[in-house]
Design goal:
By secondary structure, the chain is an alpha+beta fold. Among the domains are: about 65-295, tricorn interacting facor f3 domain (Immunoglobulin-like, Sandwich), CATH 2.60.40.1730; about 400-550, Neutral Protease Domain 2 (Neutral Protease, domain 2), CATH 1.10.390.10. α5 (about 325-340) packs across α6 (about 385-400), α17 (about 705-720) packs antiparallel against α18 and α24 (about 850-855) crosses α26 (about 880-895). It is globular.
């Protein structure tokens, strides 16, 4: 409508991407606070968490250019400290040695007041060049100097002269009394003490409360990317692959698991209540993939396991929640064996739900560790979205067992290759076990549209990023490495062909098995396969094409313009997409695989072309067949780019959507909605928001989930920006009018015959109706909440899919009574996914005292909120108008504690 067009200036004024910041450094708290206040919503949270937040606690490396080096001379037991002069710091280990086998023995004491690790390690290695010192990593451990030994043929007289430790690089250097010669095989052994910490990294402790209310501790690991050095001295870089022989000490009433099966268990020689679990020797792998857990957890074997033994471990009382994971894991594992044409190389695949876990999951070979919400699912309590998340994360981690574990990228700057392929492959794995979830559609929403919001910012970064120290490495784990990289690889599937891609990947994995590789090696294998099958790459190599996508940030907006005097002729050009354009922005160009279609019922009408990485437009005269026919570019959104059209084609598309929208594929309908709203926001689209709103007005006749999910995500961002304004009220009215037919169809009453996406669509209908204050929806949500709060253990009283909207609406309309109920339920529920949902609902309140309480809980030890869940508090505050202001002051006042 005309009233909505005038909001363009307001939207521009609240843009999140300010180019004036070049060369200007602001305090992180100020940047985060600005994100929360001025942007709000998931976009702000995504930017803050992925681009600006500090690395996980315990992984900090000081940025002071003066490095402290501690030297210990074993003969005198004297420790001296020297200062290294300022200058560039090299964090990479020298290549003097190649480890062959680690023999690691660990005994963690898992008791209040004595969280200590007793460790011994022997590293068998080969000397690659003459040297008189050995450099490896340690962090936060005390090595017993007198236990350091170097042995091997011809090394009988070799002594340790002294050692030194660099706190900045975490290099532990053992200076020897003589020289080691290239080609020598030797063993380095030592004993040490380390901490069983609580920072969710290294070898750390987690806890849960049993049915009697007693706190129970477990010991678990998270080594990626640079925390194996907290558990044992090692060459802690991915290209130092070796085999591992692990021995774990534990109390007799606990169990241990690691990457490999247990070979045998023997009594502890000095502690009668303890035993040693001695594990089979592993295949060669990187240190970050080593894992072990000591717990009193329950093993839940998969009922349909094939040749590989599969089990999911959980805390006692959560066994039932593992059933879904145990039912699908073997099938997904078998799918990837078929996809790669390479058998899974280990004898077993354990998975375990860790109560305190900083990441979503970790692909440790043979022992995948998960946050509870990523692997546990309770029917009747967990939602369809929770179920899908479990399937997606399991598929992602299993894909890593080949791509990342079997063959590992040489250094962390290629993290995007590991995570991109796992992200791309996850939807294929889920599609094997849950075809009803329609994962191709899910991928467009969850990956492509999601990451384009972030990658459209000038502050984005290329997929390949240099990373030298642990801080820089940790910053690589963001949506660019995962969702953007996966989206670019999905685009590569389309222009190579799936079978060509699969054969090239198999050749690559077979050639580099148990080794590391670079992107160029992979591109060579894919290029050779493309040549074998005569794939048209426009005279380019795979590397030529992929370099334009991996070495540049952002993505193109492709402009397709018809010649009004010659309907068969179109001109196609490209321009860098930036969500907040500014004068003087550098221009980038890509090799763009173009696809055009005029009739989705006839695949033969699909036409492919290449647009070169140049400012020069391309002219085609063989794409359009009919003068009055629309044309869609980017068939099924395989291409990672946005599309803009001339006014004639936009008009034709709009007419088609209004008359019979099903003539355009559902994925391209979602593309049109997302592109139009984002092109308008960034001022690329003629007539700005008027055109976008006119295009989306067809939604009043839309009954498919994907276009509605796309529209709702975009509308939600606009609503957050315009909240409290007259324009915001008009936007709410407009959105409600578009979605009313959905609410009238679906209402709150779920049908047992509902398919997966029907459940999602009902959730959208109720969320929009209640979120835009539609009175019948609000009253029904409050009624549902009252009934459920009177009998919260009765799962039939509230739909898990509608619970987020019902509880948020009740909290927004309620007061401390509703808040206290949500807290009680949060503390009592045994389902982690329900905890997450209830915590989000608490932040729907407008009570300042209650919001402040949640903020305090986010940084208070012993509060109901675990460390891993603090981010949910800030996410909720970002979508709460009052919470934004409170969060600003809270972050400013407590930054040091939050950062630590």
């Amino acid at each position: 409508s005309a009233e909505l067009v005038v909001t363009t200036s307001i939207l521009k004024a609240t843009g999140s991407d300010d180019p004036m910041g070049k060369g200007v450094t602001l305090p992180k708290w100020l940047v985060i606070a600005a994100c929360i206040i001025f942007v709000g919503g998931m976009v702000a949270v995504g930017l803050c968490v992925y681009y600006l937040a500090p690395p996980p606690p315990g992984s900090e490396v000081t940025t002071d250019t003066t490095s402290t080096v501690t030297e210990t001379t074993t003969q005198t037991d004297m420790t001296t400290t020297t200062l290294r002069p300022p200058g560039d710091i090299n964090y990479r280990l020298p290549r003097h040695f190649s480890p062959i086998l680690y023999t690691v023995r660990l005994l963690p004491i898992i008791e209040e007041g004595n969280f200590t690790i007793f460790g011994d390690v022997t590293i068998d290695m080969v000397c690659n060049e003459n040297t008189n010192h050995i450099v490896l990593h340690i962090n936060d451990m005390d090595v017993h100097q007198e236990t350091i030994k170097v042995s091997g043929e011809g090394l009988e007289g070799m002594m340790v002269h002294h050692t030194s430790f660099d706190q900045i690089t975490q290099f532990f250097t053992i200076h020897l009394s003589g020289e080691l010669k290239a080609g020598m095989q030797l063993s380095l052994s030592m004993s040490y003490l380390a901490k069983l910490n609580d920072i969710l990294g290294g070898f750390y402790r987690s806890s849960y409360f049993d049915v009697n209310g007693n706190r129970r501790y477990i010991a678990t690991t998270q080594f990626q990317p640079t925390d194996a050095r907290r558990a044992f001295p090692c060459f802690d870089e991915p290209n130092f692959k070796a085999r591992f022989a692990i021995t774990l000490g534990r109390k007799k009433d606990m169990t241990s698991i690691s990457n490999m099966p247990i070979n045998r268990t023997v009594p502890h020689e000095n502690m009668p209540d303890y035993e040693w679990d001695i594990y089979e020797e592993s295949v060669p792998m990187s240190t970050y993939l080593v894992a072990f857990v000591i717990s009193d957890f329950v093993k839940n074997p998969a009922p349909n396991a094939g040749e590989t033994e599969v089990a999911v471990w959980s805390r006692p009382g959560a066994e039932e929640q593992t059933r879904y994971a145990t039912n699908i894991t073997s099938t997904v594992l078998e799918y990837f064996e078929e996809f790669f044409q390479i058998p899974y190389p280990l004898p077993k695949q354990d998975m375990i739900a860790i109560p305190d876990f900083g990441a979503g999951a970790m692909e440790n070979w043979g022992l995948i560790t998960y946050r509870e919400t990523a692997v546990l699912y309770q029917p009747g309590v967990s939602s369809a979205q929770n179920k899908q998340r479990v399937a997606v994360v399991i598929a992602h981690e299993l894909a890593h067992q080949w791509f990342g574990n079997l063959v590992t990228t040489d250094w962390w700057d290629l993290l995007w290759l590991n995570e991109g392929f796992a992200t791309y492959l996850e939807f294929k794995g889920v599609d094997r076990v849950e075809p009803e979830m329609k994962m191709e559609q899910q991928y467009l929403n969850d990956a492509i549209h999601y990451v384009m919001q972030l990658d459209g910012l000038n502050s984005s970064h290329p997929m390949i990023m240099p990373a030298n120290n642990p801080d820089e490495i940790n910053e690589l784990f963001d949506p660019i490495a995962y969702e953007k990289s996966g989206s670019v690889l999905r685009m590569m599937e389309d222009f190579l062909g799936l079978e060509v891609l699969k054969e090239g990947l198999t050749n690559y994995l077979n050639n580099r098995t148990y080794d590391t590789a670079t992107a160029d090696v992979l591109w060579e294998f894919l290029g050779d396969t493309a040549t074998k099958y005569s794939v048209d790459l426009n005279g380019l190599t795979v590397k030529d094409i992929l370099d334009t996508w991996s070495l540049q940030k952002n993505f193109p907006v492709v402009k397709v313009e018809r010649n009004p005097e010659n309907y068969t002729e179109i001109t196609v050009s490209q321009k860098r997409f930036i969500s907040a354009q500014f004068e003087g922005a550098e221009e980038y160009y890509w090799h763009v695989p173009l696809t055009f279609i005029q009739d989705f019922s006839n695949n033969s009408s699909l036409k492919r072309r290449w647009l070169s990485n140049s400012s020069e437009p391309a002219v085609y005269t063989d794409i359009i067949d009919e003068p009055n026919s629309w044309i869609i570019c980017n068939h099924k959104v395989f291409g990672y780019y946005r599309v803009d059209y001339d006014e004639i084609n936009w008009d034709l598309i709009q007419v088609q959507l209004q008359t019979n929208h099903t003539k355009i594929d559902v994925m391209n309908r979602a593309q049109i909605v997302d592109d139009a709203l984002n092109l308008a926001s960034a001022d690329y689209l003629n007539q700005t928001y008027k055109r976008a709103m006119d295009l989306t007005s067809y939604l009043k006749n839309e009954f498919d989930w994907l276009p509605w999910e796309t529209a709702d995500n975009n509308f939600d961002r606009l609503r957050n920006l315009l909240s409290g304004t007259e324009a915001g009220a008009l936007l709410n009215d407009h959105i409600r009018s578009l979605a009313l037919h959905l609410y009238e169809l679906y209402d709150f009453n779920e049908d047992p015959m509902d398919k997966h996406l029907d459940l999602f669509l009902r959730t959208i209908a109720v969320r929009i109706a209640c979120g835009t204050n539609f009175a019948p929806c609000v009253e029904k949500a409050k009624e549902n909440f009252i009934n459920w709060s009177a009998d919260p253990d009765n799962a039939e009283l509230i739909s898990p899919n509608l619970k987020p909207t019902i509880t948020c609406t009740a909290m927004r309309e309620g007061d401390v009574k509703e808040f206290d109920f949500l807290v009680r339920r949060y503390n009592s529920t045994n389902v982690a996914a329900e905890k997450d949902q209830l915590l989000s609902a608490m932040m729907c309140t407008d009570d300042i005292i209650l919001l402040r309480r949640l903020l305090e809980w986010s940084i208070t030890d012993g509060s109901p909120i675990r460390k891993q869940d603090a981010v949910f508090v800030y996410r909720g505050m970002a979508t709460n108008q009052i919470g934004k202001t409170l969060a600003l002051g809270f972050i400013q006042d407590n930054w040091e504690q939050i950062a630590s």
